[in-house]
Amino acid sequence: MKKIIKFVAYFVGSLLLAFVGLLAYVALRGIPSYTPEPVNLKVEITPERVAHGAKLSSVLCGVCHGNDKNILAGKLLVDIPKEFGTIYAANITQHPQTGIGKWTDGEIARLLRTGVRPDGQYIPNYMPKFVNMSDEDLASIIAYLRSDLPAVQAYDLKQTQSTPSFLVKLLCNFVMKPNPMPQQPIIQPDTTDIVRLGRYLVAGRYDCYPCHSADFTKINEVEPEKSLGYLGGGNMLYNLEGKEMYTANITMDEETGIGTWTEEEFVNTLRYGKRKDGTLLKYPMLPYPVMTETEAKAIFAYLKTVPKIKNQVKKNL
Ligand code: HEC
Ligand code: HEC
């Protein structure tokens, strides 16, 4: 009997020791760095690209990076779940020291696709990555960041460093990894294949799926459809008052998703933020005024092809 107790004590003791060792390792190592892949890119700045990039940035970057004057100087992100830590979006204006004025086009493209900064540091999932964005959309965003529009002019503000939580460090050591750079050109689908265009908008350009799947830590950025509970909702964010907000199930399940919505109802909700019962979409779901009617219809057509998920999400009151 004594022997068994002794054995169990040793066993539990060594497990504990291993566990403490793991915790210490993660705490000391923090978020790992990577050797950045070389990226050769020089974006030609054209008025069309700048205008398109400004549109994309207004719905893709401004929410996090825009300050109260809509300058992309960064801020504290209050809607990120607290278990991820205290997170500040960076200053991405053209300031050479406090912004990204010295980054090359390739360095910006690499960060947006893979999550790796020029110094090798990896940005976890609290900044979305745009792995499947078309080369043209990406070039437009870069052209916009380089443009002479007011939101991106050098703004001298050293943004506060984020303090990611232990959970984020743990995930970055074992689960979250940088995405590889795409090996092939990514060409934007056109309106001849409306479902492919819709898929592109959801999973490549507008990035609907990280919010609308089950869990930010179980997102597959390279193959979005493999994210846990793809588009079935239930993921949790906060509103600006710190209240929990659950994302909607946008699969076509009739009971728990949007299976009974008409195309027109969907398009109006998405573009103008008004649901068919007259209620407004609540933050952090913002309407997409820059989206064309064709794009919104393409998204609807695509959602009809996505496997339905039965998931009754808590109503946001
Ligand atoms: C959900 C919020 C969010 C969105 C949306 C977002 N970012 Fe970020 N971004 C962040 C955070 C947070 C950081 C800083 C991460 C850190 O502190 O490790 C960051 C960092 C960056 C950096 C690195 C800056 C530096 O000095 O290291 C660049 C460049 C950048 N973002 C560009 C963009 C662009 C361009 C878009 C739109 C296409 C965008 N981000 C969308 C949250 C966001
Ligand atoms: C930042 C996270 C986020 C992003 C990005 C996002 N959504 Fe949402 N979405 C939400 C949340 C949260 C709700 C619930 C809002 C509410 O209760 O009013 C929601 C609600 C919706 C609804 C209403 C569903 C219903 O049953 O009322 C639709 C439709 C929708 N989103 C579609 C989209 C599409 C399409 C995209 C991409 C173009 C997108 N969302 C991007 C978070 C997000």
Largest sheet: 2 strands, antiparallel
The H-and-E topology, N to C, reads as HHHEHHEHHHEEHH
Bound molecules: heme C
Amino- and carboxy-terminal Cα gap: 58 Å
The tally of helices reads: 10
Strand order of the largest sheet: 1-2
Radius of gyration: 22 Å
Question: Uncertain regions: pLDDT < 50 for 5+ in a row?
Answer: none
Mean pLDDT: 94
Structural class: mainly alpha
Shape: globular
Quickly describe the structure.
With 317 residues, the chain is mostly helical. The chain has two domains: 47-174; 194-303, Orthogonal Bundle (Cytochrome Bc1 Complex, Chain D, domain 2). It has ten helices and four strands.
Descriptive tags:
4 strands; two-stranded antiparallel ribbon; globular; Cytochrome Bc1 Complex, Chain D, domain 2; 10 helices; 317 residues; binds heme C; single chain; mainly alpha; heme; heme binding
Would you write up a description of this structure?
The model has no long low-confidence stretch (mean pLDDT 94). The strands form 2 sheets. Strands 1-2 form a two-stranded antiparallel ribbon. It has a two-stranded antiparallel sheet with strand order 3-4. The protein starts with a helix and ends in a 14-residue tail after the last helix. The protein folds into 2 domains: 47-174; 194-303, Orthogonal Bundle (Cytochrome Bc1 Complex, Chain D, domain 2). It is built from 10 helices and 4 strands. The chain is globular. It is mainly α. The structure holds heme C (2 copies). The chain crosses the membrane at residues 7-28.
List the SSEs and their pairings.
Blueprint: H1 2-29, H2 47-60, H3 62-65, E1 85-86, H4 105-114, H5 135-145, E2 163-164, H6 166-174, H7 194-205, H8 209-212, E3 236-238, E4 244-246, H9 263-272, H10 293-303
Antiparallel strand pairs: 1-2, 3-4
